[in-house]
Design brief:
The structure is a single chain. This protein is of the alpha/beta class and 272 residues long. The chain folds into two domains: 171 residues, Rossmann fold, CATH 3.40.50; 94 residues. The protein has eight helices and 14 strands. The strands form four sheets. A seven-stranded parallel β-sheet has the order 3-2-1-4-5-6-11, sandwiched between helices. Strand 1, helix 1 and strand 2 form a beta-alpha-beta unit. Belongs to the dTDP-4-dehydrorhamnose reductase family. InterPro entries: dTDP_dehydrorham_reduct, NAD(P)-bd_dom_sf, RmlD-like-bd. Its EC number is 1.1.1.133. This is dTDP-4-dehydrorhamnose reductase. Pathway: Carbohydrate biosynthesis; dTDP-L-rhamnose biosynthesis.
Length: 272
């Protein structure tokens, strides 16, 4: 059985990946504050600044694959991933790096394909680009980039924030001129499992196959959870009437249709 190390196993994506991969890999995972569901001897506390600890961990575990969905200080993420790649450069290990649609937040004129050159305005997006490039420069094709839009889960921070707003009778800000797609934590984990098992390489845009405005997506959730109250606060993104396109489109044909998902299916999953 191959060995997998999940960096950030206690987070939303890490939990879903752990659950999806548990029967196919010998799993190890890291956490920052909250522990994971892995056996005690297979989980380790690790913060993004602990590069030496990371190096010792990799040398001890000798993972076949590393899935990085680690969060933490932006300034330290780049040095962390450079150190990870340097530790793996003389091995056969592959890294699957969870990146973000924010690598395109400097260009809202269109939805973006995998081959489009990233352009980020936010610091978060710029750091993600730097991490992508560093991993690819050092590991070449053994660095697989997984870009995602907004990630939702039944118990995700976004869903919990919506429920909290409803409970407190507070408005939920939505944007009618921001078009985007979404992905669920469980479907992302299934798609990632397929990519790993089939040793697919390159850059992947994993999101719903259709686009929906930010306002429409939130409205369906909020109105289903609280039909008797009008809590939606409609805004214009960047305070202009222009349409902002922030979706990730895939030109790849190697993800089966059976693993693809629509925004409506994500909403239904969240409300089940």
């Amino acid at each position: 059985m191959r060995t997998a190390l999940i960096l950030g196993a206690s987070g939303l994506v890490g939990k879903a990946v752990t659950n999806e991969f548990k029967d196919a890999f010998d799993l190890f995972g890291t956490y920052s504050t909250s522990t994971t569901h892995l056996p005690k001897e297979k989980q380790f506390r690790l913060d993004v600044h602990e590069v030496d600890r990371l190096q010792r961990m990799v040398r001890s575990i000798k993972p076949d694959i590393v899935i990085s969905c680690l969060r933490g200080d932006l300034e330290q993420q780049l040095s962390f991933h450079k150190a990870l790649a340097a530790e793996l450069v003389n091995t056969h290990s592959s890294v699957y790096f969870l990146s973000s649609a924010n690598v395109f937040d400097g260009d809202y004129s269109k939805h973006h394909f995998e081959m489009d050159g990233p352009i980020a305005e936010s610091e978060y997006g710029q750091v993600k680009i730097q991490c992508e490039n560093a991993l690819k420069d050092i590991l070449d094709s053994r660095a697989v980039i997984i870009r995602t839009p907004m990630i939702w889960g039944v118990e995700s921070p976004r869903m919990n924030q919506v429920r909290d707003s409803i409970e407190k009778n507070q408005p939920v800000d939505v944007y009618g001129n921001l078009e985007c797609n979404n992905i669920s934590d469980t479907q992302l984990a299934k798609q990632l499992h397929y990519i790993v098992e089939n040793e697919l390489r390159g850059i992947f845009h994993l999101g719903s196959v259709d686009m929906m405005t930010h306002a429409d997506f939130f409205a369906q959730i909020v109105n289903a959870l609280s039909p008797e109250r009008n809590l939606l606060k409609f805004n214009l993104y960047n305070d202009t009437a222009d349409v902002y396109r922030w979706g990730l489109i895939s030109s790849r044909t190697d993800i089966p249709v059976s693993l693809q998902i629509t925004n409506q299916a994500i909403i239904s999953h969240l409300l089940q």
